[in-house]
Structure formats: structure tokens, C-alpha cells
Amino acid sequence: MSDTHQKEVDQVSGVETTGHEWDGLKELNNPLPKWWLYLFYITIVWAVIYWVLYPSWPLISSYTTGVLGSSQRAEALAAVEEGVAGRSQFADQIVATPLADISNDQQLLQFAMANGRAAFGDNCAPCHGAGGTGFEGYPNLQDDTWIWGGTLDDIHTTLLHGIRVDNDNARFGEMPAYGRDELLSKEEISQVANYVASRTGLETDEGVDLAAGETLYVDNCAACHGDNLEGIQDVGAPSLVSANYLYGKSLDAIKAQITNPRNGVMPAWEDRLDPATIKSLTVYVHAFGGGQ
């Protein structure tokens, strides 16, 4: 680099150089365009005005508030309070309106569906899936197989009190462990499992005594699942002739459930969600199409 004081006029452009040179390239001393300088000055003036009018400079424990006293935090909190007030109006109506009548008020129904959708995503989707289609061990809310009933009132009761949880009004139905507790022998479990499989169109083991399985079913299972295997919702016993099985529909899965059954649980939401949200969830879940 040459000495910065050795300035000269570039012969091609006629502009004075700054005296800086890199590998034979000389830097021209072109001034900034006036429009650019004016714009730069305007931004400086604007910054000063902004510092005076609005919050800007941090202090030790607070900040300068500006002469206008503007606060985005205060505005956001006010907007939240306004939203809460508007929501409270509809929430109170939801609580006061019978479940069956909510669909008769379009505005109320829209609020219930929106509120229910948000609550479902936050609380129910991890188990039942975002669309309510469920997973193995977690019921599909879109089909018409409901263990405890799929009416609005049934769904509302299940949401309020839960299933097999520490709640005085929880729905409770538990299948005995016929194999683990040695209530039936391995052969008897095979017979009754094959009988159930034969009634649902599944392939059965060769040579199994299905008549003995039917007798075992009548003696041990019919009291809950019904004489026709259609289930009894009052005790939470699922239909065994349904196309949908909660823990897998196969002969091996049936044997496993008879031997050492899985009894799933669902939380009681009455102590976790407000009454309006639970009723909104009821309406939203029923709208999946599987409700009765």
C-alpha cells in the first residue's frame, strides 16, 4: 500500500484518489450521493425523536418511558384482557346451555368447536391422535365403537370423571386376569379365545374344542360382554364382535388379553379444566362423527 498522503487525480475518471492503492488499483475519493446523506441525516433525527417519544433507553432497574408513555406490554395485556372478557361471555353461555342445545346456536357452536379443538390439541391428542383416530390401547374417537357410550352425556361424564382413576365418580370396569391369577388353565384360555375368534371371523387353532370354549365364555365372560358378545356399556365391557379391538384383533391378542389383561386409564378432567372447556371438548369430540 502506498502512503495515504500521496493523493493524485485519476487520469481516466478525473477524480482525486484517496492515496490508497492495492495491487495497482487506486481508490477514488467519490463523495456519497446527496440523497443518501440526506436520508442518513433524517434517520438520525428520527432516532432522536423516537428516544424522546417512546421507551428506548434501559436503566438499572427500569427504562425510559418516553413522553407518550407508550407500552407494548400494556397494550398486549389489555388485548389479552379484552379477549378473556369476550371468551367469558361465551363460556358462561356454554355452561348455562344444555349440551344438546349448543348446536342450535351457531355462534355458541362455533365457540365450542374452536375452544374444544384447542383443548383437545393440548390435552387429548397425545393419546388419541390429532384427529382422534387413536392408537393401539387408545380408543379411536371417529368410529362407532364406544366402550362407555358415545352420546353427548356419555362423553361428558367420561371427560369429567375419567376411567379407572382416583375419582369417586370415575368409570370403573376391570377384566380379571384369568391366566395370571390362575382362574383358567392355559388350555381353557385357548378354548375361550378360539371361541371368541370364531365369532368374529378370525382364523382359529386347529383341533380346539369350540363347544367347551362357548361354555367357558357363558360361565366367565357373558355377564359383562353379553350373551351375544356385543358388550355392555354400563360396565365398560367392549363388544367382542366389533370390527375394532382396543388392544389388537388377532387370536394371539385375544389370548394375551384373557391371560393378563391391559386395563387402560383416562384422567378425570373436572379438576384440570373449567366446566366450559369440558363441555366444549364434549361437543368437539362428538363432532368427530363416531358419537351416538
From TrEMBL:
Entries under InterPro entries matching the protein: CcoP_N (IPR032858), CcoP_N_sf (IPR038414), Cyt_c-like_dom (IPR009056), Cyt_c-like_dom_sf (IPR036909), Cyt_C_IC (IPR008168), Cyt_c_oxidase_cbb3_su3 (IPR004678), Cytochrome_c_Oxidase_Subunit (IPR050597)
Cofactor: heme c
Main subcellular location: membrane
Pathway given in the UniProt record: Energy metabolism; oxidative phosphorylation
Residues that bind heme c 1: 124, 127-128, 266
Superkingdom assignment: Bacteria
Spans traversing the lipid bilayer: 35-53
Pfam entry (one): Cytochrome_CBB3
Keyword annotations from UniProtKB, A to Z: Cell inner membrane, Cell membrane, Electron transport, Heme, Hydrogen ion transport, Ion transport, Iron, Membrane, Metal-binding, Oxidoreductase, Repeat, Respiratory chain, Transmembrane, Transmembrane helix, Transport
Any GO MF annotation of the entry: electron transfer activity
Annotated ranges, domain Cytochrome c: 111-200, 208-289
GO biological process, one term: proton transmembrane transport
Binding sites annotated in the UniProt record for heme c 2: 175, 221, 224-225
Localisation per UniProt entry: Cell inner membrane
Gene Ontology cellular component list: plasma membrane
Cofactor note as given: Binds 2 heme C groups per subunit.
Subunit structure: Component of the cbb3-type cytochrome c oxidase at least composed of FixN, FixO, FixQ and FixP.
Reported function: C-type cytochrome. Part of the cbb3-type cytochrome c oxidase complex. FixP subunit is required for transferring electrons from donor cytochrome c via its heme groups to FixO subunit. From there, electrons are shuttled to the catalytic binuclear center of FixN subunit where oxygen reduction takes place. The complex also functions as a proton pump.
PANTHER family from the UniProt entry: CBB3-TYPE CYTOCHROME C OXIDASE SUBUNIT FIXP
Family: Belongs to the CcoP / FixP family.
Identification of the protein by name: Cbb3-type cytochrome c oxidase subunit
Organism: Roseibium alexandrii (strain DSM 17067 / NCIMB 14079 / DFL-11) (Labrenzia alexandrii)
